[in-house]
Amino acid sequence: MNDPTPKDPDYEARVRASFARQGLMVTLGASLIRVAPGLVEISLPTSNAVSQQHGFVHAGALASIADSAAGYAALTLMPPAAGVLTVEFKINLMAPGIGERITARGNVVKAGRTITLAQTDVFALHEGREKRIALLMATLMTVEGRDGVTS
């Protein structure tokens, strides 16, 4: 990552407040676990509510927490009044989501003035062991001065 210094000294409170307003994360039962410059960790307990027909955690739930982890990792390095929007992402699903908990760890790869690249590694905790089950790469946009888009 280029410069992990936050432009907003209150980045953590801003990220936590924004996360709390995300209806989808509430619906999924996801929690914000860790917020640091260029890094965010989101946890999702597994349940029938987020499963697919074979009992694995649904790819949509995995992609949702992975996208949010990447976006909030990017937001930690953006200016105080900025919002963040995902421009695109690609997710590779490497193994089924099996276990007690899913963790998405988003990290900024390169923070630019307008565009930020981030990566999220997604892990399943099963019987005390973590296994990487997905990898997401995202392009995120800093949004400033647009009605309705703030942190």
Automatic annotation (TrEMBL):
It comes from Microvirga ossetica. Belongs to the YigI thioesterase family. It catalyses: a long-chain fatty acyl-CoA + H2O = a long-chain fatty acid + CoA + H(+); a medium-chain fatty acyl-CoA + H2O = a medium-chain fatty acid + CoA + H(+); a fatty acyl-CoA + H2O = a fatty acid + CoA + H(+). Signal peptide: none annotated. InterPro entries: HotDog_dom_sf, PAAI_dom, Thioestr_dom. The keyword Ion transport does not apply. One of its GO terms (molecular function) is fatty acyl-CoA hydrolase activity. It comes from the Bacteria. SUPFAM superfamilies: Thioesterase/thiol ester dehydrase-isomerase. It is an enzyme of class 3 (hydrolase). This is Medium/long-chain acyl-CoA thioesterase YigI. Residues 54-125 form the Thioesterase domain. Its EC number is 3.1.2.20. Keywords: Hydrolase.
